[in-house]
Amino acid sequence: MSDRTQAARAKKLGIKEKELTALLAVREKLASGVFKHVVSYDAEDRERIWKPIFNMGIEMGQYDCGQVGCIGGWMAWEMGEDDPALYVEEHDRDNVDDRLGMLFYPPERRNYNTLTPRQAVNAIDKFLSGSKYPWGV
Question: What is the DSSP string of 8-72?
């Protein structure tokens, strides 16, 4: 994808170009199995899980930088953000105009811990196609 096309796509989605690049990288890693889905995670798990983890509901991952584990946290990591948790928290789960917020925070009725990489890829694909509600309503 050319820089001009990438910039236009990011603008259409209402996000920054570097966020689109990071989101596409996270999508690829989710789709290819780079991330290991875990339903819960604690210090003992760190010793036996050698892959980066994916979980939309926990605030710690292999890289121990706060929020890495969810889509937004991994995007922040891809972009080299100093504080992934702060990056994710800057987005509003209750504002339909905050496109990334709608992606980072699935509807409350969902159990975040059980959301799988496949479901995340589907949500990212819906987001990239312009859906305001990538996880459904």
Answer: HHHHHHTS-HHHHHHHHHHHHHHHHT-SEE-S---HHHHHH--SPEE-TT-S--TT-SSSBTBHH
pLDDT digits (tens, 9 = 90+) for 45-55: 555 555 677 88
Backbone phi, then psi, for 11, in 5-degree steps?
Answer: -60, -45
Task: Bin 98: left if φ > 0, else alpha if -120 < ψ < 50, else beta.
Answer: beta
- Chain position carrying tokens 């584990």: 69
In this prediction the pTM is 0.83
> Look-up: residue for tokens 């980066």?
52
pLDDT digits (tens, 9 = 90+) for 5-19: 989 999 999 999 999
| Contact assessment for residue 75 and residue 26, using Cβ atoms and an 8 Å cutoff | yes
Give the count of beta carbons closer than 10 Å to the beta carbon of residue 2: 7
